[in-house]
Amino acid sequence: MVERNSTFSAPLRRYDHNGYSDCRGFRRFLIIALCLLALPAWAQRSSVDARKVFIELSTDKAELYVQEQLLLTVQLYFSNELVSGELSEPVSNNAVIESLGPQQEYARVRGDQRYRMIERRYAVYPQIPGQLSLAPLEFEGSFRGASGRLKILRSSEQLFDLPVKDIPPQFSGSVWLPATGLTLEESGLPNDNRVTSGANLTRQLTLRAKGLPDATLAPFPAQTTPGLRSYPEPAKRATDISAEGLTSILQQASALVPVQAGELRLPEVRVPWWDTASDSEKVAIIPERVLVVAPGSDFNAQAQVQAQAPAVAAVDRKLNEYGDDTDPELDVNDQINTGSGAFWPWLALFMAVGWSITAGSVWRAKRSRYRANKATKSNTGADGSELYKELLAAAGNNNPDTPRLLLRWMNLQYPAKRFQSWRQVAEFCHLPPLTDALTTLERHRYGTEQPLEDNASNISAQLQQAIRELARRPASQAANNGLSPLYPPAIDASQR
């Protein structure tokens, strides 16, 4: 500590030419002494007023990669009773800034002064390499002083620029994922990998990334496996917010239907990412999986083709037996000339029997169709009114059989169309609300992960409104430019 002493000398009495005393020098001495004593108090008061409010900024790292998470902490200190105030938000032209929950209030002591402190935390994601610059944070508020009067105080603080590094050239992934942790999980398939042909399976992949927003996570690439039909659903995204930053979650489910017995191989899933803690590349892997598919009781088209393959091969071998050296027509003529005369009668008898069997089959098929149409009309009425009421009731209850009832009712209304699936009906009618509602019902029927109870009333009302609109349409107003179904009726998933 440095002490300064000042000494002043002044005469207490002075005689003028008239002989009277003059005290003006003593008065000057008192004024100067009082001013010198008051200067330290004024200086201390000014410094205290300047520290009644101030802002402190801090980050969790001094440099980072592009799109890497930076935790920014903003702390506002004030010593008086805050009446009102406004603290600006951090802003940057080349970064995405996310707030990490509501602000927190604490009590802190700095030096000999007790402060109230408001803390806010943000996650900052720079989008381009170079320098990360944030605009100054400003505070303006009103405080009530000791005299009871309101006082306006202002404070501002700016974060120093941070260097932002580009994507390292040794990164092998197609999507840049800088995170502090990343996990990849698989669920839904049996542990023993044994399934039955025609069974409905659900495979769900879950990706969790710590330190990234969910928008940066790309959906899983589509994978095809011979003998396995896959129906992927839209990916679901979510973000968990905490004081330590963002944790994003990506979930994607796929309905799998094995249609071929034997071993089916699901290829491995690889997600490369960059570990910012160790500054190195890592890969999250779900290993290859082999499903052992047992034959099911249902007949499928692929099994039919496999069963007919030996017969087709035998026919090909017979045709190849002629070769280039033998003329098939000569062989036939030789057989006719050398054979007995009973060849032609037997051939005529064989053809007559074949035509008789064909004619009988056609007559029986027409008779069965006539009986089926007659029974349908007797049960549902000539105009399908009973079936229409049943369809409306099923739609109101979100019954999974609503697509099947809609298909029957539309075939009664438009017999010439011969709809094979509800998707053909939706394409013919051009009603997007009907398509959306039936798609949601179909996902619920095949065991999707999204619950239907959240918006059950909206779906039922949407279905009923679309069906009533169809009932009010005359046949001449319906569109007649529908395309043929992509899949034959035998393998159309909507018919199962």
Annotate the secondary structure layout.
Blueprint lengths: L23 H27 L2 E7 L4 E2 L4 E9 L3 E6 L7 E5 L4 E7 L2 E14 L3 E3 L4 E8 L5 E8 L4 E4 L12 E2 L1 E7 L6 E3 L4 E10 L17 E5 L3 E7 L2 E14 L3 E5 L2 E7 L4 E7 L2 E6 L6 H20 L7 H11 L4 H38 L4 H12 L5 H12 L8 H8 L2 H14 L10 H17 L24
Parallel strand pairs: 2-11, 12-20, 14-22
Antiparallel strand pairs: 1-3, 3-7, 4-9, 5-7, 6-7, 8-11, 9-10, 13-15, 15-18, 16-18, 17-18, 19-22, 20-21
Helix pairs in contact: 5-6, 5-9, 7-8, 8-9
Protein name: DUF7939 domain-containing protein
InterPro entries: BatD, DUF7939
Keywords: Membrane, Transmembrane, Transmembrane helix
Give a quick set of tags describing it.
single chain; 496 residues; alpha+beta; Immunoglobulin-like; 5-stranded antiparallel beta sheet; 22 strands; elongated; disordered C terminus
In short:
This protein has helices at residues 24-50, 301-320, 328-338, 343-380, 385-396, 402-413, 422-429, 432-445, 456-472, and strands at residues 53-59, 64-65, 70-78, 82-87, 95-99, 104-110, 113-126, 130-132, 137-144, 150-157, 162-165, 178-179, 181-187, 194-196, 201-210, 228-232, 236-242, 245-258, 262-266, 269-275, 280-286, 289-294.
Radius of gyration: 43 Å
Q: Could you report the average pLDDT, rounded to the nearest whole number?
A: 77
Low-confidence stretches: 42-50, 299-305, 322-340, 378-382, 476-496
Predict the CATH topology of one domain. Answer: Immunoglobulin-like
Distance between the termini: 92 Å
- Strand-residue proportion: 25-35%
Q: How helical, in percent, are the residues?
A: 25-40%
CATH class of one domain: Mainly Beta
CATH architecture of one domain: Sandwich
Number of strands: 22
Q: Based on Cα principal axes, name the global outline.
A: elongated
Helix/strand/pairing category: alpha+beta
The largest sheet, given as strand count, sense and whether it forms a barrel, is: 5 strands, antiparallel
- Give the helix tally: 9
Protein name: DUF7939 domain-containing protein
Keywords: Membrane, Transmembrane, Transmembrane helix
Organism: Marinobacter psychrophilus
